[in-house]
From TrEMBL:
Residues 11-104 form the Inner membrane protein YqiJ N-terminal domain. Keywords: Membrane, Transmembrane, Transmembrane helix. The keyword Transferase does not apply. InterPro entries: YqiJ_N, YqiJ_OB. Residues 133-193 form the Inner membrane protein YqiJ OB-fold domain. The chain crosses the membrane at residues 12-38, 59-79, 91-111. This is DUF1449 family protein.
């Protein structure tokens, strides 16, 4: 069977199987789960597509990818075995790969949704953009003014640093490089902040 698996007709499925094993080994070593934040900017509004792909739940993206590669490999091998049994020869690898991708993608939707239901307790250090609100950041360069945002570094609850663009919440406030400020609201990718010496923050 191994010799057959290495023939050109089975090549896409052999490659997918090797990639699947490689990703699985990386995860087993403990390098962490890849996770897709489906609530992030740019993905909202595509819930129908995400549902069809099996990506609308809390399933880590690398687990979803392993599942997809597994389904692609299984369907592809089954397709080639069936073709060989019926016609005496497997399909050409491009045709088999396209068929396996379509059928395997459909199968993966079921598998991914099932995996998401049995992994409700999965925890990830990936956070949504709104989780940075009410955290303090440090202006990195220049000065933040209304209409002139500046880059700031914000450290989340997991100790990971994020670079965001900020403007002062108040029109006449200027926050210089090296100063700290509290992120109080967000509009798109832009955060509005209060400087740390603001009287409203003295009791916080």
């Amino acid at each position: 069977m191994l010799a057959v698996f290495l023939t050109p007709a089975y090549l896409p499925f052999a490659i997918a199987f090797v990639v699947m094993i490689g990703i699985g080994l990386i995860e087993a070593i403990g390098l962490g789960f890849g996770h897709l934040d489906v609530g992030a900017d740019g993905i909202e509004g595509h819930d129908g597509v995400l549902d069809w792909l099996g990506l609308s739940g809390e399933l880590p993206i690398l687990i979803w990818l392993i599942s997809l590669l597994g389904c692609f490999t299984l369907v592809g091998v089954a397709l080639q075995q069936g073709a060989s049994a019926l016609t005496g020869a497997p399909l050409g690898w491009p045709l088999a790969a396209v068929g396996a991708l379509i059928a395997g993608g459909a199968l993966n939707t079921v598998v991914a949704n099932g995996l998401a239901r049995i992994m409700p307790g999965f925890e990830t250090s990936v956070i949504s953009t709104d989780d940075l609100l009410r955290r303090r950041g440090t202006i990195l360069e220049g000065a933040a003014r209304r209409g002139v945002p500046a880059r700031a570094k914000v450290v989340d609850e997991h100790g990971q640093a994020h670079i965001v663009m900020v403007e002062p919440h108040d029109d006449r406030t200027v926050i210089k490089a090296g100063e700290r400020a509290l992120l109080v609201r967000r509009e798109g990718k832009l955060f509005f902040v209060l400087p740390e010496d603001d009287r409203l923050l003295q009791s916080i």
